Amino acid sequence: MPVSRRQFISTTAATLGAASLTNVRSAFASDSKALRIAVIGVKGRGRSHISELRDNVVALCDVDQKILAERAAEYGKKLGRSLEQITDYRDLLERKDIDAVSIATPNHTHALITVEAVKAGKDVYVEKPVSHNVWEGRQMVEAAKKYNRVVQCGTQSRSNPGLAAAVAFVQSGQLGKIQHAVGTCYKPRPSIGKLDAPLSIPNSIDYDLWCGPAEKRDLFRPQLHYDWHWDFNTGNGDMGNQGIHQMDISRWFLGEQKLAPRTVSIGGRLGYEDSGDTPNTQVVYHDYEAAPLIFETRGLPRSKEAQQDWRNSMDRYRGSGVGVIVQCEGGHVLVPSYHDAIVYDRAGKIVKEWHGGGNAHHANWLKAVAARDASLLTGHILEGHLSSALCHVGGVSHLLGEEQSSSEIAKALASNERLSDAFERMASHLRANDVDIDRGEGGLTLGPWLELDTSTEVFASNAANKLRARESQRAPHAVPDMEALG
């Protein structure tokens, strides 16, 4: 059975002395096999965390007691030992016999749990996107630095040796100067439905804790879990869900270590009406000085007819469905997956390629934790923050935008060849799905160009800065302000 907060405190006090806890902690520092790790959030991606950390996992934590019990039984059987069940992550962080946590909760609680974990002396692996908004991500970076903890972001492609070799190949100049990078997230996302009355939350779920810093509100979607991705209160759309991987790979190739000075978004939630409010179709243009990063999200299939088989009917752009294209003077690189990269010359001939390679991202984190050396990380929290924030900035431009007709948008983008091309392809895609984008109230939104001070990550626009962080956070679930803590 899950341990309550009161039960946990009394049991821990009765069984563990302060001196012995200190000795336990110090004994683990140089041996990754001895590290005791808890996985927080175990319904979806958390299952992979348990499998990858396997021998190090000693406890599971989730606000959904039903899911928690199911995972404990499932992995207890697989691992041949019992796993402790804890419903409140705050109880877990008080444990001196837990060295680190691996977080796979919804986006809106990533920052809160991470900052509180490092304050409690835990090292952290946190899923992508690392944050719900730009400000949160920066607090995570500063917290890891202040408390000297090892914090890895779950962008696992960073630990793939083939992709690392491809990045090194491009950055060495062997394919000429980079001209632009395009990330694509063409992934089937049908309607999530809409309820007439609020969703009834089961008693097995601590909904207040589930909401965390987010506004606690009635939900009108059929399911609580997963579809939080499509609600700006808790998620970041598919650009921040799947697309963060491709955004990160794109920025990796470009070698950019700051946010873009200018960004604009075009898109909307189009093709159906449901309870979601994040774009299912979007183009975001990050105007880096050296070369732009263009990101395209499409949740609809290639046509209205193709909606009979969404999963097998998605568009591709130059061979990329969920992937990246890096265009250079002497050719281009296609990254069609998490672990493959193919170099083409200007004539379309393959000249170099890398394939395969296991997922060693959690292993990389364990190695860095044991060595007490964050420089060993392939996906340092700073990298995770920057790539996540690129998704968030695109979301801010969208939220500040206005619905316009396709002709009005085309006219506004006419001076930018790459952006115009991306928009025209998106417009053709929407028309093929019988989406009316030729009137000003069709749901297609043109956001403003947002200017950003890349050293402070603050927008020039007051309206944009109001969306840089949550306007308010719910006590006692506020993400700590690291600047205020000194």
Report the sheet-strand fraction: 15-25%
**Rounded radius of gyration (Å):** 23 Å
> Which spans have pLDDT < 50 for at least 5 consecutive residues?
3-29
Main sheet overview: 12 strands, mixed
Shape annotation: globular
**Quick one: how many beta strands?**
18
Concise summary:
This protein is of the alpha/beta class and 486 residues long. The chain contains 17 helices and 18 strands.
How do the strands and helices of this protein lay out in sequence?
Layout: H1 5-15, H2 18-28, E1 37-40, H3 45-53, E2 57-61, H4 65-79, E3 84-86, H5 89-93, E4 100-103, H6 107-119, E5 123-126, H7 134-146, E6 151-153, H8 161-171, E7 178-186, H9 207-211, H10 237-241, H11 243-254, E8 262-268, E9 281-286, E10 293-298, E11 322-328, E12 331-335, E13 341-345, E14 350-354, H12 361-371, H13 381-399, E15 402-403, H14 406-413, H15 417-432, E16 445-446, E17 450-453, E18 458-459, H16 462-465, H17 482-485
Parallel strand pairs: 1-2, 1-4, 2-3, 4-5, 5-6, 7-10
Antiparallel strand pairs: 7-11, 8-9, 8-16, 8-17, 9-10, 11-12, 12-13, 13-14, 15-16, 17-18
Helix pairs in contact: 6-7, 7-13, 11-13
